[in-house]
Automatic annotation (TrEMBL):
It comes from the Bacteria. The chain crosses the membrane at residues 7-27, 48-64, 84-104, 125-147, 153-175, 187-205, 243-263, 284-309, 350-374, 395-415, 427-445, 452-469, 489-506, 527-548. The keyword rRNA-binding does not apply. Keywords: Membrane, Transmembrane, Transmembrane helix. Belongs to the sodium:solute symporter (SSF) (TC 2.A.21) family. PANTHER family: SODIUM_GLUCOSE COTRANSPORTER 4, SOLUTE CARRIER FAMILY 5. It is found in: Membrane. NCBIfam families: sss. InterPro entries: Na/Glc_symporter_sf, Na/solute_symporter, Na/solute_symporter_CS. It is a multi-pass membrane protein. PROSITE patterns: NA_SOLUT_SYMP_1, NA_SOLUT_SYMP_3. It comes from Litoribaculum gwangyangense. This is Sodium/sugar symporter.
Length: 549
C-alpha cells in the first residue's frame, strides 16, 4: 500500500473528469435554431424524469461536508450523526406530499418567487439576500475548503490550488449549461459517489477485520466501540451539545431538514424542473431510499477509522503511511482522507473520483441556484425589468462566476475548521428557523399576513443569536445556558411562529389574508406507488432506530 497516487489512479480520475465535462458540455449545447431561454437554463426546460431528479437530489446533497465532515463526526461521535440522513428520508416524503403540489401548481422558478406570490416583493427580496449570502459565504465556501483539504491530504496539492482547481472544474460545464448540465451529469456523479463510497467502506471494514470481509468488520467495530452505535446520546456524552438526545427526533432536527429539503433553492430546484408533479414525487421517493444507505458510505468509515487508530496491531500492519495526516478527536475531519490513502492502486482513483463527484456536483448545484435567485429575484426585479432571455441567461452565468470567485477567496480563510458538517448546520441554523416559520405558516395558515411574516423573518435573527451568544455569559440560573444548537433552532422556530401568529391576529383580527392559499384534500392526493414506497421507508427507519437506539 502506498499513500500517493500512481498511474492507474490518475487514469481513472482523468477518465472520470473527461466523462463529466463531455456529458455536461454535450447536454449544454443549444439545439439548432433554438436560443437558450430562462426556462432552459434555470429549469432544464422542465423535462427531468424521476430517476434524474432522484439522482440529482442526492448528488446535490452529498458533498464534501458529508464524505469528509460527516465521516469526521462519525469518528468523533459515532452513528448518532446518521440521524441527519435517516430523518431526511422522512422529510423528503413530507416535502413530496405536502409542499411540492403547491410549488409546482404555482409554476415557480425560485423559492423566493413563492414568497412574492404569497406575501410581497419586499419579503421576497429580504429572503433572496439571506439565501445568496448563505450559499456564498457558508455553503460554497465550506465545500471548496473541504474538497481542497482532501486534495491536499491525499495527493499533496496545496490548499489554494485545490480550491482553484475544483472551482474551475465545476464552472466548466455548469456556468454554460445551467440546470440541465448539472442535473444530467449528476446522474453519472451519483454512480461514482455510491460505488466509490462503498469501496472505501469495504476497505475500512475489511482492514479492521484483518481481511475477513465487511460483515466481520462491522461486527469487530461494534464490539470495539459499542457506544459509537448509539443513535440517542446521553447528556454525559461530549457530543450531546451537537446531537441532544431525544431532541434530535422531536426538536431542531426537523427545522434543519424541513428547511433544507423543502425550502432550499439548490435542492428543490430539481423538482421544479420535473415533467410533472407525479414525476417529481417519484424522484423524491428514490432519493428517500438512497438516503437510507448514505450512512454506510459516509459515517461507518469514520467509526472504522477511530477503531483503526486506537488499535496498535492494525496500525503496525498499515506501516509508516498510517502515521501521516493522522486523524484525532481535535482534527476528526482528517478521517476520510486518511482512509483513502490505503486503497490499492486503481481503486484509489475510483474513490477519489467519488469524492470529487460529490464536491463538484454540489458546487455546480449551489452555483446554479445562487445565480437563479440573483437573476430572477434581484436582477429582473430591480436592475433590468425588461431583460430578455439572452440577457437573463448571461446574467445567470456572470452572477455564478462572481459567487464562485468570492467563495474561492473565502475558502482558505476557514483555516483549521473541525467537524465542518456541524459548522454548516450551526450557522445555517441561525437563518433557517425564521425562514421555515414564514413558509410553514404561509403555506398552511391562511391568516398569516405579509407584515407579520416580515417582522417574524427579521426578529428570528436576534432570537437565534440570543440563544447562540448571550446565554454563555449569564449565570447558571438562566434556563437558556449553553443550549445545544439543535434545541436553539427548535426554540427559535416556535418563538418566531408565535410572533408571526400574534402579529397576524392583531393586524387582521383573525380574518384570512387575501393571499392565503386555499388548501383542499385533492391537492395532496398521491399515487399508490408513492404511498407504498413511503410506508416502506418508514418501516425500514423504525427497524433501524429500534436496532441502534
Amino acid at each position: 500500500m502506498t499513500s500517493g497516487f500512481e498511474m492507474w489512479d490518475y487514469v481513472v480520475f482523468i477518465a472520470y473528469a473527461i466523462l463529466i465535462l463531455g456529458v455536461g458540455l454535450w447536454v449544454s449545447r443549444d439545439k439548432e435554431g433554438h436560443q437558450k431561454n430562462a426556462e432552459d437554463y434555470f429549469l432544464a426546460s422542465k423535462s427531468l424524469p424521476w430517476w434524474a431528479i432522484g439522482a440529482s437530489l442526492i448528488a446535490a446533497n452529498i458533498s464534501a461536508e458529508q464524505f469528509i465532515g460527516m465521516s469526521g463526526s462519525g469518528f468523533a461521535s459515532g452513528l448518532a450523526i446518521a440521524s441527519y440522513e435517516w430523518m431526511a428520508a422522512i422529510t423528503l416524503i413530507i416535502v413530496g406530499k405536502y409542499f411540492l403540489p403547491i410549488f409546482i401548481e404555482k409554476g415557480l422558478y425560485t423559492i423566493p418567487e413563492f414568497v412574492e406570490k404569497r406575501f410581497s416583493t419586499n419579503l421576497k427580496t429580504i429572503l433572496a439576500v439571506f439565501w445568496i449570502a448563505l450559499y456564498v459565504f457558508v455553503n460554497l465556501t465550506t465545500v471548496l475548503y473541504l474538497g481542497s483539504l482532501a486534495l491536499e491530504t491525499i495527493i499533496g496539492i496545496p490548499l489554494v490550488y485545490g480550491v482553484i482547481g475544483l472551482a474551475l472544474f465545476a464552472a466548466a460545464y455548469s456556468l454554460y449549461g445551467g440546470l440541465s448540465a448539472v442535473a444530467w451529469t449528476d446522474v453519472i456523479q451519483v454512480v461514482f459517489l455510491v460505488l466509490g463510497g462503498l469501496v472505501t467502506t469495504y476497505l475500512a471494514l475489511n482492514t479492521v477485520s484483518g481481511g475477513e470481509g465487511i460483515l466481520a468488520g462491522l461486527s469487530t467495530v461494534f464490539d470495539a466501540v459499542p457506544e459509537r452505535f448509539e443513535m440517542i446520546l446521553d447528556e454525559s456524552n461530549p457530543e450531546y451539545k451537537n446531537l441532544p438526545g431525544l431532541g434530535v427526533l422531536v426538536g431542531g432536527m426537523w427545522v434543519a431538514n424541513l428547511y433544507y429539503w423543502g425550502f432550499n433553492q439548490y435542492i428543490i430546484q430539481r423538482t421544479l424542473a420535473a415533467k410533472s408533479l407525479k414525476e417529481a414525487q417519484k424522484g423524491i421517493l428514490l432519493a428517500a431510499f438512497l438516503k437510507l444507505i448514505i450512512p454506510l458510505i459516509v459515517v461507518i468509515p469514520g467509526i472504522a477509522a477511530y477503531v483503526m487508530i486506537n488499535d496498535p496491531e492494525i496500525m503496525a500492519r498499515l506501516g509508516l503511511a498510517a502515521q501521516e495526516n493522522l486523524p484525532s478527536l481535535e482534527q476528526a475531519d482528517k478521517a476520510y482522507p486518511w482512509l483513502l490513502q490505503f486503497l490499492p492502486t486503481g481503486l484509489k482513483g475510483v474513490a477519489f473520483a467519488a469524492l470529487a463527484a460529490a464536491i463538484v456536483s454540489s458546487l455546480a448545484s449551489m452555483l446554479n441556484s445562487t445565480s437563479t435567485i440573483f437573476t430572477m429575484d434581484i436582477y429582473k426585479q430591480y436592475i433590468n425589468k425588461n431583460a430578455g432571455d439572452k440577457a437573463t441567461v448571461n446574467m445567470g452565468r456572470i452572477s455564478a462566476f462572481v459567487a464562485l470567485v468570492i467563495a474561492c477567496i473565502m475558502a482558505p480563510l476557514l483555516g483549521n475548521l473541525d467537524q465542518a458538517f456541524q459548522f454548516i448546520q450551526e450557522y445555517t441554523g441561525v437563518v433557517s428557523p425564521g425562514i421555515l416559520a414564514v413558509f410553514l405558516l404561509g403555506l398552511f395558515w391562511k391568516k398569516t399576513t405579509n407584515k407579520a411574516a416580515i417582522v417574524g423573518a427579521l426578529v428570528s435573527i436576534p432570537i437565534a443569536m440570543y440563544f447562540k451568544v448571550a446565554p454563555k455569559g449569564w449565570s447558571t440560573s438562566s434556563i437558556f445556558v449553553d443550549v445545544p444548537f439543535m434545541d436553539q433552532m427548535g426554540y427559535t422556530l416556535l418563538l418566531t411562529m408565535a410572533v408571526i401568529a400574534i402579529y397576524s391576529y392583531i393586524q387582521h383580527k383573525g380574518a384570512d389574508d387575501e393571499k392565503g392559499i386555499p388548501i383542499t384534500k385533492a391537492l395532496f392526493k398521491t399515487s399508490p406507488l408513492f404511498n407504498i414506497g413511503s410506508f416502506a421507508v418508514l418501516l425500514i427507519l423504525t427497524v433501524l432506530y429500534s436496532l441502534f437506539w
